[in-house]
Amino acid sequence: MPNLDRGGSVLEAVGVDAFEERVYRALLGLPDSSAADLAAALREPARKVSRALARLEGLGLVRRPEGRRFAPVSPEAAIGMLVNQRRAELDEVRGAAAEFVDAFRLRDLRNHATHPVEVVSGLDEVRRFSVGLQHNPEKSVLSFDKPPYATPPAGYDEVAAERPLLERGVEMRIIYERPALQLPGRLASVTELVRLGEKARTLPTLPLKLYIYDRRLAIIPLSGSHVSEAIAVVHPSALLDALIALFEAYWERATPIGAVPARATDGLSSQEARVLTMLGAGLSDQAIARQLGVSLRTARRRITAVMEQVHAQTRFQAGAAAAHRGWI
């Protein structure tokens, strides 16, 4: 608490010093006063009082309608506003402190791990820890991408989030479970990431969700639901080596996903190229319809037209045509 015997201020916590509080208290008793009036009442220099009034006006404690004399703003409203503002600032400090703790913890996990596996639990802890790792890889990210997913924050852009990593040369090798590519717009995002430098492949199924950062740390969500309340953090150990080997074994079996051209090429329009790529990636007719934003009947017409254009009688042959063009 402020020490008033030493000239402290009750309002110090919201940014009002002792002299400014004296001026505000005087104005509460002498509303509609000029700076000179208050200076005389306080027996203080007019310039000093004017500076205090300007500061109080900036804080919303004092008003001066159309440049006339000063009047106090209702303490209940004005001080309440300052308290709420300071509370918001403290919340930001608390958030920054959590980031500092995460950075310290990440360093500790990378450099001073004493156990091969550590469990991080709690939605907020898992989210902060995971986000910190996603933005800090130095060399590589290996991942099994498998639904279900947590709901992304509003405005989340997968391409924008990964682009900085690719631009600074981080190797991104991602294996997508086929249902992941069937989500609306997902294949378009993945092919754009491939164009930017991601190495992507797909398989019908994957055994688990997995993230390996710089081959030094692995994350395994411990919940099968879309929200993970706990993750296993695997440090350098035989278990980490086994997870890396598991990833490489699945990588060899997976089908590559190439970048679909943005313009007409090889006799196909960009949309026809997308359809051919989706066929090669094993997407169902329903999934292709969702990706294109059209009805199932329209999607089937387009699928038939593309298969005829590349002389494919089966989806396997369509996949071979897409692979020949480098799109899977």
UniProtKB/TrEMBL annotation:
It holds the Pfam family TrmB. InterPro entries: Sig_transdc_resp-reg_C-effctor, TrmB-like, Tscrpt_reg_LuxR_C, Tscrpt_reg_TrmB_N, WH-like_DNA-bd_sf, WH_DNA-bd_sf. Residues 261-326 form the HTH luxR-type domain. GO terms for molecular function: DNA binding. One of its GO terms (biological process) is regulation of DNA-templated transcription. This is Transcriptional regulator. It comes from Phytohabitans rumicis. The lineage of its organism: Bacteria, Bacillati, Actinomycetota, Actinomycetes, Micromonosporales.
